[in-house]
Amino acid sequence: MTSPLAIQLMRFAFLVLLWLFVWGMVRVIRGELQSSGARQVQSVPKARRARKAVPDSRPSRNGVSQLVVTEGSLAGTHVALTGKPILVGRANDSTLVLTDDYASTRHARISETNGVWYLEDLGSTNGTYVGQSKVDRPVPLEAGVAIRIGRTVMELR
Amino acid sequence: MSTAVRSRSAGRSDRRLPTRRSTELLYVVMAAIIVGCAEAIVEITRDNKVSSHVATYAAVTLAIGVIAHIAIRRTARYADPLMLPCAVFLVGLGLVMIHRLDLGLAQQASEQGGTYAGVAAASQVVWAFIGLVVFLTVLLVVRDHRVLQRYAYTLALIGLFLLLMPAVLPARFSEVNGARIWIRVAGFSIQPGEISKICLTIFAAAYLVSKRDVLSLAGRRVLGVDLPRGRDLGPLLLAWLVSIGVLVRDHDLGTSLMFFGLFVVLLYVATERVSWVIIGVLLFIGGCYISYQFFGTVKERVNVWLHVFAYLQDQGYQMSQSLFGLGTGGLFGAGLGGGRPELVPVAKSDFILSSFGEELGLFGLVAILAVYVIFISRGFATSLAVRDSFGKMLVTGMAFSFGLQLFVVAGGVSRLLPETGLTTPFLSYGGSSLVANFGLLALLIRVSDAARRPPTTPPSEVTTDSGPVPITVDGAQ
């Protein structure tokens, strides 16, 4: 009933099918990498459009979109800034959970008001530093300025 | 700062972040279609017709995939979309190959005038559904992977207990083909090593996260290498010694190698010290030398590995048949159902990769390995993205042990390494391995959900009594 030719065709068609499956998944991964890259260098017009619609949830005017850990055991970790406050500390329910003996359970909070991100120390034992100065009241954050908590250093980007 | 504004903007940003659940469903369906095609090709090639149960394995694959998908949609919305399709694809393809080997063995038996009760594929289907139940249970019970940290020592005890069981049980309950790594109760045989692997990975991750600072800072410097204090290393060394001791006793080379590799890599990841890798490699070389000198099994396997064609008819038979199979397959394979992979003894468990190599060729085998690589790389991507150290260590450990296992199996089948007797995850025949890997998949998906979930307002802001006071940015300005 089935000719050898048909069997040969099926044999190669199946290999093609297998590779299509792999190729499709690689495309999904590629798409995710591209979309996260696009979010990183979010274009200014997009931010403006968002501002028109919703004044309260736009990315801040200095164009930061991420909190990036640059030093310490969590180096390389990103937290997307979505307008919600970020709690940093050793507590398990923190947004960024530090495993750092020099950090307090609830160490600091980074939150947004009117498009500006503020850093606030939550009464930590060893203090929070922005650049060289200790944080004793909420301070506005600029992109690229080092925030030091214990042995962990992070910055907004 | 009104909370109403906050929660509204929260809802909006949630909608902006895709959960990618439809991508997952799409690829699950694609995997099932490929499995269906594979089964159809096997039947057409062998019997020249499509039998009535051609869709069975595709249906099983689809059912497992869709049920797991619904559970993920409900409880882990932001999980990685590719892990489940990869796993389902491998399970389905494994089922087709096991069924195909059943057919081949039945034919072989009838040629020799005997009969073969081909039930391996059916029992693998049952195990796949048991695996699905385990997957759902883990996903529903473990709502936050960080909870596992609390049970680290309990899990370590369970892991060691399972590992020790076969060694202390009488041989009639624990021995199959000379290896005492089984628990046989009421017709079921379980290989507890796979389950204890997961328990011990969780323990190692939790232990290293809590002890990371002392491990990397305290201690003396000897010959330019930082050595940790003995008491910090105690529990870990003890766990290692017990597992290695048991495994050497059980003559299970592969699992022992897996545990050791896992501990060394987790130590390295936790402490960022190259000295651990150096110590590990030295210990590994020492271990290899000692086991080669003292254990007959190891010596035999190395000899077979080096001179496989000298042992063509006895110990090297399986290995050489596997090589002949791969050679027959060539670049494009003999076609599904067109080869004789059943000539390799116990092809369905240890040598299933060589069966695929024979029937799908190098191109097909590399495609299957690529699916594995995608799965493992999604694991490592998760470990980079997750925001707590325990999750990082846990996922790193699981993804690494998965990769190491695959490397050792593929190396063994292609004679790059001596044969070790590990199973190919998801693909090969064997209930406990399949069930344990479904559990592992559930944990990976749970952590990847935590990693990809957009940050939410922490509940501590409202609930804790002594917690931080509400933010007063406006007042401070």
Give an overview in words.
The complex is a heterodimer of chains A (157) and B (477). Chain A is α+β, with helices and mostly antiparallel strands and 157 residues long. Chain A is built from two helices and eleven strands, in the order H-H-E-E-E-E-E-E-E-E-E-E-E. The longest helix of chain A has 37 residues. The termini of chain A are far apart. Chain B is mainly alpha-helical and 477 residues long. Chain B has a domain of 310 residues. Chain B contains 18 helices and four strands. The chains are: A alpha+beta (157), B mainly alpha (477). At the A-B interface, helix 1, strand 2, strand 4 and strand 5 of A face helix 1, helix 2, helix 4, helix 8 and helix 14 of B.
Briefly, what is this?
Chain A has helices spanning 4-40, 44-53; strands at residues 66-71, 78-80, 86-89, 96-97, 108-113, 116-121, 128-130, 133-134, 139-140, 147-149, 152-156. Chain A has 157 residues and is an alpha+beta fold. The radius of gyration of chain A is 23 Å and the shape is elongated.
Can you count the beta strands of chain A? 11
| Distance linking N and C termini of chain A | 66 Å
What is the CA-CA span between the terminal residues of chain B?
14 Å
Sheet with the most strands of chain B?
Answer: 2 strands, antiparallel
User: Which oligomeric form is depicted?
Assistant: heterodimer
Q: Largest chain-chain contact?
A: A-B, 55 and 68 residues
Gross morphology of chain A: elongated
Arithmetic mean of pLDDT of chain B: 81
Largest sheet of chain A: 6 strands, antiparallel
Radius of gyration of chain A: 23 Å
